[in-house]
Design brief:
- This protein is α+β, with helices and mostly antiparallel strands and 586 residues long.
- The chain has helices at residues 56-63, 120-125, 127-130, 134-156, 197-205, 243-262, 275-282, 299-302, 308-311, 329-339, 370-379, 395-412, 458-461, 490-499, 504-518, 532-539, 570-576, and strands spanning 18-31, 34-41, 44-51, 70-79, 92-103, 160-161, 179-181, 189-191, 210-218, 230-239, 271-274, 296-297, 315-321, 350-354, 360-362, 387-393, 423-427, 432-435, 440-443, 470-475, 478-485, 525-531.
- The radius of gyration is 30 Å and the shape is globular.
- Strand 18 (432-435) and strand 19 form a beta hairpin.
- The longest helix is centred in the first third of the chain and has 23 residues, at 134-156.
């Protein structure tokens, strides 16, 4: 056998045992008559010892080992004189009696250690080397662990894992599809699934009343830290359920994962916040509840004092930063520049210092007396020592800007702690959103989302007021998952398509297979899809999902290791009857 043990399991109990280890050379140190080599595998590191006095030839061989050489070492476990209690094997070492080089290595392009000298693009190019680093390796093992816990829990509550196809039909809603040309059906294309949405609904029609899978999804969209062109979902669907059944079931999954993976128990039900309330008080449909600073609208008491910025604004809103009255002018100027960034879009920032002695000092003292400013403080439940920050303008834009300001203050004040988790459900989303450019409604989630039953009669009369029977699980300002009760009635589904601007022919062309299935007894059903990569990244204490995916793409959607996307041969193009048009854009 190549090895009897791994590099992460030996301890004092094995002292005196003959062992064989295999792995990669992490580093070596020559100290006169002794050479020490750190041997690494995915389980840990074990120190090897070579003694010039007892075996000079073996010691000379060890001194020629390079970083990342693959070796086999045979020897005896002995107690280490200079113990390293930071690692599991730190009390022992191997007195090596035989050394075999299994494979040599070129000098790696970066150091394979926690504090590496390799930039992100270089590490992605040599991802197989980056995966040897303990942090990245542990991220992938965490991903494995979470996947196993998901499957264990879902199986325990009666769900069946069903695989759905990767080559499906292109649909017009949502992000751009990745398309795959068909050689056998020239001029036609498959699409890679953005989600198995219609397929899992068909499984409900088929009678699989509890379905799930951890599934690959594909979206051709601009990337950021929590997005990849291919990503994984925990995709779930249930039959004969209402909204509370879904929320209770998958709140159970969330609590189970927190307990098993993080050792955190939630005894209370997750908070539920209507979409409208989330927007009104946090300016976001994924509010971070690890800290307060809820918005207060002060339009009524701020307007009418000849301050044109407020008087000409649709909305005046504020947040209260506790204990921040000592913020310097420089810090306030930094906040002002922050909210004026193009991506945030505020025109400026008003502040009020509520001093410990009860006096108030603001950037608008010219227009407001201390008594008027005190009304603002009272409305916001502010107390001496606090700082009030005020934005004004178009309501929708100002709420968004206030949201960014709130998050920025939360970060500056150390309130967004990674070891604190505040889950909540956001419910009662709008069913539709109006697009001014195309002059039509779009589904806020997808076209199969059911209206809340009491709003159904508004679907044709006043579509913009219809609430969706939809829900998102939000944790620490991140949407972890979302879903809805589905439309299971073909008449209501056709009505929905009509509101979305589909003709009967277009609806039948795109979704005829689903509408036909509904004719054969579709049960009431609903479901949810969780961003599996986001779950794992959150458990790993990171914002980016990239380091929790074995072979990710960069921000341009390229795999720099495989050098793809890439061109294909003329022969392949001819087989597919495809012609590459030259780029004529200016």
């Amino acid at each position: 056998m190549y090895r009897t043990h791994t590099c992460g399991e030996l301890n004092m109990k094995f002292t005196g045992n003959d062992v064989i280890l295999c792995g990669w050379v992490q580093k070596s140190r020559d100290l006169g008559g002794m050479t020490f080599v750190d041997l690494r595998d995915r389980y840990g590191i074990t120190q090897l010892v070579f003694n010039m006095e007892t075996n000079s030839l073996l010691c000379e061989k060890a001194r020629k080992l390079g970083r990342e050489f693959v070796i086999q070492a045979k020897g005896k476990v002995k107690e280490r004189s200079n113990k390293n209690l930071k690692i599991i094997t730190g009390e022992i070492e191997i007195d090596v009696e035989e050394l075999n080089i299994l494979n040599r290595s070129e000098v790696p392009p970066f150091t394979i250690e926690e504090e590496t000298d390799g930039g992100e693009e270089l590490r992605m190019k040599y991802r197989y080397l980056d995966l040897r680093r303990t942090t990245v390796k542990n991220n992938i093992i965490l991903r494995h662990r979470v996947a196993q816990e998901v499957r264990k829990h879902m199986d325990s509550i009666g769900f069946v894992e069903v695989e759905t196809p990767v080559l499906i039909k292109s649909t017009p809603e949502g992000a751009r599809d990745f398309v795959v040309p068909s050689r056998m059906q020239p001029g036609t294309f498959y699409a890679l699934p953005q989600s198995p949405q219609t397929l899992k609904q068909l499984l409900m029609v088929a009678g699989f009343d509890k379905y799930f899978q951890i599934v690959k999804c594909f979206r051709d969209e601009d990337l950021r830290a929590d997005r990849q062109p291919e990503f994984s979902q925990i995709d779930c669907e249930m039959s004969f359920v209402e909204r509370d059944d879904i929320l209770n079931t998958f709140e159970g999954l969330a609590k189970y994962l927190f307990k098993q993976v993080k050792g955190i128990e939630f005894s209370e039900p997750f908070m539920r916040i209507p979409y409208q309330e989330a927007m009104e008080f946090y300016g976001s449909d994924k509010p971070d509840l690890r800290f307060g600073m809820r918005f207060t609208e002060i339009s009524g008491i701020a307007k009418g004092h000849d301050f044109v910025v407020f008087d000409s604004s649709e909305y005046v809103g504020a947040i209260c930063a506790e204990g921040c009255y000592e913020y310097t002018r420089k810090q306030l100027d930094e906040l002002t520049e922050f909210v004026k960034k193009p991506q945030i879009g505020a025109k400026g920032l008003i502040y009020v210092r509520y001093n410990p002695d009860g006096t108030l000092k603001s950037s608008v003292d010219k227009f407001y007396s201390p008594e008027e400013l005190l009304k603002w403080a009272v409305a916001m439940n502010a107390k001496p020592g606090d700082l009030l920050l005020v934005l004004a303008g178009d309501k929708k834009k100002t709420l968004t800007a206030l949201s960014e300001l709130r998050l920025e203050m939360g970060s500056r004040l150390g309130l967004r702690k990674r070891d604190l988790f505040k889950p909540l459900w956001v419910v009662d989303f709008p069913l539709l959103e109006w697009d001014e450019e195309s002059k039509r409604f779009y589904a806020m989630h997808h076209p199969f989302t059911s209206p809340i039953p009491e709003d159904l009669d508004l679907l044709e009369k006043d579509p913009g007021k219809v609430r969706a029977n939809a829900y998102d699980l939000v944790i620490n300002g991140v949407e972890i998952g979302g879903g809805s009760i589905r439309i299971h009635d073909a008449t209501i589904q056709k009505m929905m398509f009509k509101v979305l601007g589909f003709s009967d022919e277009e609806a039948d062309d795109q979704f005829g297979f689903l509408l036909n299935a509904f004719k054969f007894g579709a049960p009431p059903h609903g479901g949810i899809a969780f961003g599996f990569d986001r779950w794992v990244a959150m458990f790993g204490g990171q914002d980016s999902i990239r380091d929790f995916i074995a072979f990710p793409k960069n921000n341009s959607g390229r795999d720099v290791m495989l050098d793809t996307p890439s061109q294909i041969s003329v022969q392949q193009l001819n087989e597919l009857r495809l012609l590459i048009k030259p780029d004529t854009r200016g």
